[in-house]
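Need fresh eyes. Consider my entry:
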Amino acid sequence: MPSHRKPDMPLPDQPTGSGTDIAGDALGGVGRSTTAAGANGPAAAGIDLHIRQLSKRYANVAALDAVDLDVASGELVALLGPSGSGKTTLLRVIAGLLHPDSGRVLFGADDATRLSLRERNVGFVFQHYALFKHMTVAENIAFGLRSRPRRRRPDKATIARRVDELLALIQLPGFGNRYPEQLSGGQKQRVALARALAIDPNVLLLDEPFGALDAKVRVELRRWLRRLHDQTGQTTLFVTHDQDEALELADRVVVLKDGRIEQVGTPDEIYNAPASAYVFDFIGRANRLEGRIEDGHFQAEGQASRLRAGLAGNMPAQLYVRPHDIALVAADAGLRAEVVAVHRRADRITLELSAQTQSRLLELDLPTSSDTPLPAIGSAVGLQLQRYRVYPG
């Protein structure tokens, strides 16, 4: 798992050839200072966020079902799950774009549940919201501050200083007079984030911020975002369905399924100690074996070998194991399987295996530098599971 430390290196320039545009909206309101920050970014890091028994239904579907979550000031938290898991609904309820059926949203000790979107003072970057095409980069970044009521609006000089500081922070100095059509997709996204940060938000909320960018720009931008977060310390939640994005970027990951939280943990905890079969199967690549637990041991269907289960009782169960946690052994040892296919990739060799009566094929990864002779397709092999987890059901 990645180390989230502040880097010494400059932020990378984004390719100018990308025409993809992900921009956002800065939603400004009351509750925070509008004083310009220092050259290193916003002066405040945001506040603690508390979600208490939050529920939201659409007709007969529970988009959120009694969700509880605590986010500490300065944390970068990923909301991860497939479509329909509730992650975007949760983000929009926090922002005030949707009202919950029940439960509370607290910013620090203040109950924000019934506050309007503007009163919550959040920065929100939408996946498909474009920058205002008729405005310059500087005007886009300043939009949230200039839209405030007159009594809370900073003067022009303060806004100009704030814009310059944010352009320096996102490493686009001198871009203030350009228009969105003159920017690459990655540059537009940086401007969108600067616009959201300009209002010094209580919480920064990002909805699939890199979802429409090409793969290379996505990788560069998510690493840039991590460095930006380390500079600003802004309390941030972002929605993603991309597991690599969540594990690389976040301090903690929230895995959602059908409107409920399955697990909250660090990237290492989510990947190496999944709390449920769903989390194991959803995060990374996983093999599943069907079988039973008997006398504390797991026995896969159609197999003679018994493996320590770590669970008591007699019940149906599933064993999960990563492809890199399986070793090849003699055909008469370990779990019995037959080689169905061999796939060569730049960084690994993957064997597809059929294990007796199991309904799903298994995958086993070998490094390309491995000295292990590759078995022929159709040959019998033995499998030794080096690290695995067993779940009831």
Q: What stands out?
A: Residues 285-392 form a domain with the OB fold (Dihydrolipoamide Acetyltransferase, E2P) fold (CATH 2.40.50.140).
